[in-house]
């Protein structure tokens, strides 16, 4: 058993240097950058659709309580603020061509990483609290037309959904996003060092 542990420790300590050409690394980096840019555009488009969907409630349904309109307005403001933040992040990642200015792109990529960190840790909670407040004000009038069991079910579902999104979904998204951006930064740093050694 000790021999097996010794062999296993030797195997784990043995590192193999993987040689990858700068062209292959650049192609991988380009694919990952395009993936991040496309995901960013999809997030912005999703927020725009959400804004239009919530805004249409204001115009197409005649509510009787001011709290409903206040709730819709708060939700619209939260969506608009987050959309502006997402647009700013998208500009950071897509402002310049990383093939002609890799060092400048690396600086912007690190700024994007910090912006995403701030979004997930600070802005997310402001966004979640604002959405909760807006949904709560909106539901005051809406649930009054429902039976008691439906009211309880609606409020419970809304609270459970927000808790689920704030814990499990948020952590999974943060982890995946952090790993993807860190890996991309590492690739660009290695790419930059390869170009320095070749020149």
Automatic annotation (TrEMBL):
UniProtKB keywords: Membrane, Transmembrane, Transmembrane helix
Keyword Transmembrane: yes
Transmembrane segments: 40-61, 67-87, 124-140, 146-169
Protein name in UniProt: Uncharacterized protein
Lineage: Bacteria, Pseudomonadati, Bacteroidota, Sphingobacteriia, Sphingobacteriales
């Amino acid at each position: 058993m000790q021999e097996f542990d010794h062999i296993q420790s030797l195997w784990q300590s043995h590192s193999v240097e993987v040689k990858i050409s700068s062209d292959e690394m650049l192609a991988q980096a380009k694919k990952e950058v395009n993936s991040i840019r496309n995901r960013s555009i999809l997030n912005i488009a999703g927020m725009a659709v959400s804004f239009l969907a919530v805004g249409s409630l204001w115009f197409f349904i005649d509510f009787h309580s001011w709290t409903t309109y206040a709730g819709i307005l708060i939700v619209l403001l939260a969506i608009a603020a987050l959309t502006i933040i997402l647009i700013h992040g998208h500009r950071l990642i897509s402002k310049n061509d990383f093939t002609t200015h890799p060092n400048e792109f690396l600086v912007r990529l690190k700024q994007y990483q910090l912006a995403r960190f701030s979004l997930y840790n600070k802005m997310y909670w402001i966004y979640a609290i604002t959405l909760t407040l807006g949904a709560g004000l909106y539901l005051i009038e809406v649930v009054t037309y429902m039976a008691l069991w439906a009211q309880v079910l609606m409020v419970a579902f809304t609270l459970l959904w927000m808790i689920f999104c704030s814990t499990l979904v948020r952590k999974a998204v943060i982890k995946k996003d952090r790993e993807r951006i860190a890996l991309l930064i590492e690739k660009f740093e290695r790419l930059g060092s390869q170009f320095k050694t070749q020149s």
